[in-house]
Amino acid sequence: MSGMHNRRLAKLSLLIPAALAFVFVTPGALAETAVLRNGQRLRITGYERDGALVLLHVVGGRVAIRTEELTAIQPEDYFPLRASEAPADTPYGDLIRSAAQKHGVDEDLISSVIAAESDFNPRAISRKRARGLMQLMPGTAASLDVADAFDPAQNVDAGTRYLKSLLEQYGQDLTLALAAYNAGPDRVAQYRGVPPFPETQAYIRRVLQQYSQRKKK
Description:
By secondary structure, this protein is an alpha+beta fold.
């Protein structure tokens, strides 16, 4: 059994180049697909071996899996980023600026999170019961002393405080903070990086696209 496992590792090591430093999926980035034994397919921007594990580079982080769970790495063509949907005039701009100045968080980042979370709809409710502009879960809202999650001022202030706490928790690593905002800190800890959830990966990508576009203005 150990001989077979070693042969798998040896074979995989031939496929794996030196550790790649891709962190963000940038325009024109070359993507690959990691095919897992359970049939799941993950779009990756790089990969590396770490003992009995393979570290798959996904949007803004890494996913660790056991070598035997990986069946193939398939190359893909270049893929472009979608055009930004960032609005010319940001709704609730005064509230966002106030929260940004009060808590020391980039207002463009706050706006980008709101765009991805609720598309600036203060009455938005997700299937998981997240509410308001920054889609606060009931437990999170309660821990942040939010009386009304549908109130834009309360929601933006609390959501900004929560986002700041995640940035501090992950050493200002934006992609990990966004992953935790979407999937929860427990999931980030479980996967030791960005969870392999298509929803979370798409969410991070959308926020980063919005953020990048806003910074160009």
